[in-house]
Amino acid sequence: MTINKARLAVALSSLMLAGTVQAKEKLYLFNWTEYMDPEIISAFEDKYDVDVVQNYFNSNGEMFAKLNSGGASQYDIIVPSHYFVPRLIDTGLVQALNVEQLDNIDNVMEQFRDPAYDPGARYSVPYQWGTTGIVYNTETFPEAPSSWSLVFDPDVNAGYPFSVVTDGQVNLGSACAYLGKGFDCTEVDDWKEAARLLIETKGRKNFSGFTDGTPTLQQLARGVAHVGMSFNGDYLHFKEESPEAFRNLAFMIPEEGAEMWVDSMMIPVDAPHPELAHKFINFLLDAEVGAQLSNYNYYSSPNEAAEPYLDHVLTIPPVKPTDEEMSVLRFTPSLAGEKLQVFQQLWSEVQSR
Amino acid sequence: MATTSRLRRRYSSIREARHLLLTVAPGAAWIMVFLVLPSLYLMAVAFMTNGPYGLPQMPLSLESFKRLAGFGFLGWSPGNLYTLLRSLWQTIIATGLVVIVAYPIAYYITTCRAKWRPIMLLLVVVPSWTNQVIRTFGWMNLLAPGTPLSSFAESLGFIAPNMGLYPSSFAVTLGLIYNFLPFMVLPLYAAFEKLDLAQVEAAQDLYATPVRAFWYAVFPQTLAGLLAGVVLVAIPAFGMYVIPELLGGGKSLMLGNLVANQFSGGANWPLGAAGAILMLLATFIGLFAMRRIGKRLGGGEQVVI
Amino acid sequence: MRKRTLHRTLRGFWWLTLLFLYLPLAVVVLFSFNASNSAASFTGVSLRWYRRLLSNDVILSAFSNSMVLAVVSSVIALVIGCLIGYGMYRHRHRKLGWLIVLIYLPIVLPDIVFGISEMAFFVQVNRLTGLFQPGLGTMVIAHVTFQIPFVALIVYSRFVGLDPTLFEAATDLYATPAKRVLHFMLPTLKPALISAFFLSFTLSVDDFVISFFTSGPESATLPIYIWSAIKKGVSPEINAIASLMIGAVAIAAVFSMLVNRRQT
Fold first, then answer.
1. Cβ(B141)–Cβ(C39) under 8 Å?
2. 3-class SS at B71?
3. Contact of C209 with C133, CB cutoff 8 Å
4. C 62-101 residues inside an 8 A Cβ radius of B
5. Closest Cβ opposite residue B82 in set A160, A161, A353
6. How far apart are CA A258 and CA B63, in angstroms?
7. Looking at the domain A2-129+262-320, which fold is it?
8. pLDDT tens digits along A209-265
9. Which of C37, C216, C234 comes nearest A70 by C-beta?
10. In this prediction, does ipTM exceed 0.90?
11. What's domain B72-302's architecture?
12. In the beta sheet, which residues pair with residue A78?
């Protein structure tokens, strides 16, 4: 009887051991939706014999909140936009990278090696960069001006439903640009004027709501909205996927100025598998993998070595902005301290009116 | 003799107490640890200072309540007040409309044959067994631009051309009614079932119009059910998060969204906590008022809570 | 005469209300079979969205999370709630006002307040001790918390409906408390336990807000998956998952209708 029990115990514990041995190490990736080639994931899984668990967010705010509420010890890699990078470093939610584990770090383009948002690039490695512009229906607006007036001027679009993004800073910046204060305005008085404009815009009969960049494209494709704000790469990615639905949709960078962003990979402070996270970052820094990523999601690569492998489409607008467009594109400013509080107050005012 | 019986009594009262403790303690402790404690913590958060990136910090302050009332860096602004009034307005409208729909339905069910009644009630309740998100998603499908309902509303001039019925505050109201109708029908039905029909018939002879008969004979008798229904509808409606978020398109923020945004948008925990306290206050005031009214008008003991 | 028109009007209103209640669900089910990606027009019958669904690992794991969460939390809530329900009955002559308040608390607390206080609390405790990492565990805890009161009240009202002398008879009949529980309590409580479990299960599956705020990276349930899918841009796949859940509810409804029939 006791021998049987002992045998059973041994059998059970060996089973459990087998279970733990078989369970692969997991990499927890917290990324934007529609932003990663599944084939890259499976290639990484095969190469290191691990499992990659992907979670998604639709806005930087959502990502930051998740990280604050326990995520800092649950995700291995996050992909914030540049203007959230200083915030993440200041709050101690991310850890400094160990460059020695990143053999491919020299593939990064010169201009991303010492970015203003992360001096010395100690915490972040660029993932992709792109722009946020206006996507509109060319049938409804055959002679659309290359201007924010498509969104903010009721005379230009009097009756067709339109949406704006949910990110407060991008909205405020766009309104600033339309008002001639520049996309990267940070003067409180300019902000106030921009907030007023946004409240007026929100009150227009044909305003259909706040929608994140990626879903906006689907709304446009289904004719639910005729003007919206989205990202250049997502626009091309979806257009490739269903050319018919996107036949009448165009992407445009308003001449008053618009957002340019860099998304970076960072490792949360208490990431469960920091070594694996470094391996993943290094994997993406590889020339061919970096090119594969950009070829998949149609965003510009910050990877210099990847250039020879890039598809032709990535070297022309809208992926690669023209020189003219480049001259009006601005980074969304990183906010901190009282500026951030003032911004948040103005933005919540816009939301609640 | 006397001492032994006292001892026995004492012994049995100890046993009784132990029994009470053993049965009730696990659950009570569970609720204390996992609900009361967290709520107290949340309340404490409301009295802390907002940190540079939205997390609570020492020292204690009333800053978040000031913010909630609209006082901030830029002077007073009415944004939060709008949100509060909008929540109240939506709650009142939705509860009122739910009452208007639920009364005839509950009455109609009582007039049907006894055999059918449970099935009819079931039919009313079943949609609420599906998840809230799915129900709301159904309305998103129905009210989107280009759907028959939207085109019909457009042809009536009810909405601007090319716009859908969703997202809008109308869609939010509709979603709220849909979501809460069963919570009103059930208690009203229970009240109608107990209705003294003789009294109603007498009233029909006594008062010339059906409206008066209803008002004097039927309404007082169903009041308890009505109050229970109002509590079951109004409290969750006031704190609703999912429906305004999905059907309002961010245009008709309610208190629930204001609170949730402070946490899920990484904005300001103390402000969110202060909003939560406001919601709790409204809840308890609502419950208390219903109880009082119920008691004063008689039959209040039957009110569920 | 007037009465008949009234009845007829009411009947019309009843059918209208049913239409109102079932139309949104019917549209979801209808469009889950739509051949095209459009939400506005139905172009033909196809099962492609269901096929896509079955090959989507994330959805399958969301489904299993939902089930594990519902079953585990319901079982725990059943045990704890039963004890309270019985305690409340046995000691009903005492002043248990505080207990009643405690038990009603989870019922009256708005979902959103419930969810964020659990989240804020778990985060804080996690920061201090490392316990309560957001995930299925924290979700189970939160669900049990709102299920306990319902179980307790159902069990309590079942006991109240019993003849008190039954308890005395049971005390005489069975010597040990264990035997009493096994041969008397459990059989008499069976219907109450079944309906309490069913209700707990439904409450768990129906919940979104509380799960949303207490979940972790690997514990997304179906409603959370659907929510993020809606937020990310409506795809017809959502119609298919939602239809499956509606189907499950319909089966439960027919089942309880049959039970109802048998009882009357």
1. yes
2. strand
3. no
4. 80-81, 83-84, 86-88, 90-91, 94, 99
5. A353
6. 35
7. D-Maltodextrin-Binding Protein; domain 2 (3.40.190)
8. 898 888 899 889 888 889 999 999 999 999 988 898 899 999 999 999 999 999 999
9. C216
10. no
11. Orthogonal Bundle (1.10)
12. A30, A266
